[in-house]
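Project channel, design review

CF: Before we commit to the termite gut metagenome constructs, I'd like one complete example in the thread so the newer folks can see what an input/output pair looks like. Taking Nucleoside transporter/FeoB GTPase Gate domain-containing protein.
RD: sounds good, go ahead.
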Amino acid sequence: VTKKTGSSFIGMFALRVVMAFVVAIFLNLILPPNDTPFMQTIVAVNDTSIAGVLEAWLRSSLSLVVTIVLIVTGLMILQRMLTEFHLIEVISRPLRPLMKIFGLPPSSPFLWIVGNLVGLAYGGAIMADMVEEGKLSLDDSNAVNHHLAISHSLLEDTLLFVALGISLWIIVGTRLLFAIIVVWGRRLIVTRHFSFKNKISIFNKRGYV
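CF: and here is what came back for Nucleoside transporter/FeoB GTPase Gate domain-containing protein:
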């Protein structure tokens, strides 16, 4: 999916690992110390045969596959319907100022909503579909990938962490802050890179090099 949407798998993997450490260090520096331990509940599981374990694993895997197929298919149908009735434009318009702050293209609001409501995997499938149809450029989808690599499943993850007693504002604010830093940092690097290449090209044409 990352390759189809203009991003490098290794690059995205490295970005997420590095930023995990960066964000952890940042939060460790700004948050007050808390000596209250998290409690872990241990549930006893009855011993069972290998056949029973394999059967349970197979059922769980098949259930997961069916769920993923249904969700992705449903999202694709929704995206086609919204496109057919020109509703993506209606949804996107009020979110475009926010996308501008995030450093994302005007075509990204629907993908941003999907990525934050149902997750990166499902959002990636929709993004790949839009790229194949020519409704989204590889450069734009790459920018969205960089944002969602840092901040995705915002609804589900936030609810889970809030249930553990972590501040909603810290979870949401930190993820969005570093997503903005990553996207704008990438844009700055890309802009300087192309500016440097253009200068070299001009020098070559004028015979300076």
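RD: helpful, thanks. The chain is about 75% helix and 0% strand.
CF: Confidence is low (pLDDT under 50) at residues 39-45.
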